[in-house]
Design a protein that fits this description.
single chain; mainly alpha; 11 helices
């Protein structure tokens, strides 16, 4: 990777870490398309590896607001679906996978815009975990289902719970990718190299994260879901 490409990736990582640290979502949406354009081999390993320290930080910072019940159901379903995400990598061309996942995400966001407020049920948690396990393992992007489930919850609860779910799931996805030969230790080098950019964005997010109220967070996650769906449909 050239120096110019590395600088572009570092700036992208810093911005994405700030967005996710402040709103609870968005890192993969911002980073995955850019990383895929610069070097397709970076996806999904680079995205998954970079998100682990970021989500560890957010989970610790927001630990008092964690929805333990929701996190448990989502994580259980997410882990169960992780092998399915690996199968998708093998069975479905990435372009078609992005189109399918993107269309489903956009549809879910449009329905949510018209739907009344709701309290997430066990079925919603499990469904979000299953879809996230498939899409994040295959593409590095798994936020939209969780965003839609927690769109009516307090902002701090969304950030804490999504961070914990991501943290466990990303470790599981990386472990499976390495165990099956779909990832190599050398692919982690870029993630380690860009840790300072990640840390800078995460640190800056602490200055504004408390200003995100429920209404703004819902608007953010719905826009996030629509944009991420469109990005996935268009492909890298």
């Amino acid at each position: 990777m050239t120096t110019q490409s590395l600088v572009v990736l570092a700036v992208t990582v810093a911005v994405a870490a700030f967005v996710q640290g402040a709103g609870g979502l968005g890192f993969a949406l911002i980073v995955a398309p850019v990383a895929g354009l610069l070097d397709p081999a970076l996806v999904p390993v680079f995205v998954l590896a970079s998100m682990i320290p970021l989500n560890a930080y957010v989970a610790w910072r927001e630990r008092a607001s964690l929805d333990l019940r929701g996190a448990g159901w989502i994580t259980g379903a997410r882990l169960a679906a992780t092998p399915g995400g690996l199968l998708l990598l093998w069975a479905i061309p990435s372009g078609r996978l992005g189109l399918f996942v993107g269309a489903a995400t956009v549809l879910a966001a449009l329905v949510s815009l018209a739907a009344p407020a709701f309290t997430p049920s066990r079925g919603a948690y499990v469904g979000a975990g299953l879809v996230t396990g498939l899409t994040e393992t295959a593409t590095g992007v798994g936020g939209p289902p969780l965003a839609l489930v927690y769109q009516h919850r307090p902002a701090a609860e969304l950030r804490a719970t999504v961070a914990v779910c991501f943290l466990v799931g990303e470790a599981a996805s990386l472990g499976l990718l390495f165990a099956t030969g779909r990832a190599a230790p050398a692919q982690l080098g870029q993630a380690v190299l860009l840790l300072p950019a990640l840390a800078a964005g995460a640190w800056l997010s602490r200055l504004v994260h408390h200003r995100f109220d429920a209404r703004r967070t819902r608007l953010f996650v719905l826009v996030f879901a629509l944009v991420s769906g469109a990005v996935l449909m268009l492909g890298p």
